[in-house]
Amino acid sequence: VVETFEKGFLTLFYILYRITAGDYNIAQLVITMLTFSFFAMAMLREGGDKGLPLQLMLIWSNYYFTIYDAGLIRIFLAVAIIYLALSYLFEGNERVFVCLVILAWTFHISAIFMLLILPLGRLPEIERRWGTYIIRLLLVTPVAFIAISRFIVPLLGQRYRGYGTVSGLSLSINKFDVAPLFILCAMRLNNGKEESAPRYYYICLILLALSTIISIMSSMVSLGRLVYYTNLAIVYLCPRVSLRYNGTAFDYFIPAR
Questions:
Q1: Dihedral sign from CA coordinates of 231, 233, 68, 225
Q2: Could you give phi then psi for residue 48, rounded to 5 degrees?
Q3: How many CA atoms lie within 13 A of 99 on its CB side?
Q4: What is the per-residue pLDDT across 66-93, written as a single tens digit (0 to 9) for each?
């Protein structure tokens, strides 16, 4: 089973195993510190103090359990690298984004999924057509997920065979856990305000919508862990949607990055 782990993770763990004389607890502590280092680099690139306390709270509340679960330390590290990668995508630096996604892939195979969102940085007129793009995702994603489970997952080997099972669709309220935030942020774009939101804001909205689609589809195919990546949009959006007093009442505004 160990041999089926991703090469980046195996290399890192082997180095730590040699350094720590086989002490697993110390090795996991080092990996956790490395993971938070990637989160910290992303935060510093965002200006350091812009919503820093809220970013830390959101990261901790969404991903704290991965620190203690030995089975999730790989994806925890991959998520942190993707968080840093997104900051480059929002700036239009696609080369660095791709390189970081590939690095994250060497720690958890699911991270390669984030290459599929690369076109989001190039979508024409995203400020006006973001709703149309979400509808297209709603139509395309279910078919893509079933195709991946049926035809691609079996090629990955015995270890991932369970992810190739397609079951019936079932709905529950927890599938829509990020929907309230999506609605709140979407309403901000349709309230007639003069100022327009930065491009990253629309990309994050699409990622939030994708999180809900993935959550719904997870009852059919075992690809629900992909929301760990798309939910990073929450960490980017919440600290940047602020309240401002306009003289008569409070309203929401979206500062530039």
A1: positive
A2: 80, -60
A3: 6
A4: 555 556 788 888 999 999 999 999 888 9
